[in-house]
What does this fold into?
Amino acid sequence: MSLEANKALVRRYFEEGWNQGNLEVADAILSPGFALHNPNLPQPVRGIEGFKQVITRFRAAFPDLYVAIDELIAEDDTVMARTTAQGTHQGQFQHIAPTGKAIAYGSIGIFRVVGGRIEEIYVINDTLGLLQQLGAIS
It folds into this structure.
């Protein structure tokens, strides 16, 4: 795939998956062997169904979630995305009861695209900033 096609795939991941909560998009854009690596999770999220569960849980906590793409850079089979997520804490998030607080935090994701599908993502989130905004830590 071209660099622009790879970037369009990552845009679709955010727009349809995270922003719209369209779980079916995962079937179209993720490979069957998909893996999401995030140091905030005890182990990588594996497979398409695992990813759907992540989106479902996160959007239940932040139903108005919107992830803005601040920057996309592509080279070979890799796309780097710098994003800012915003939303309102209206549901259980991890062990934190809903606070009604608005949040905004940054993330960087490195996507590996194989055969026109996302094979693997490595994500780093500003989790400290998110937890501070929720009042979970000072």
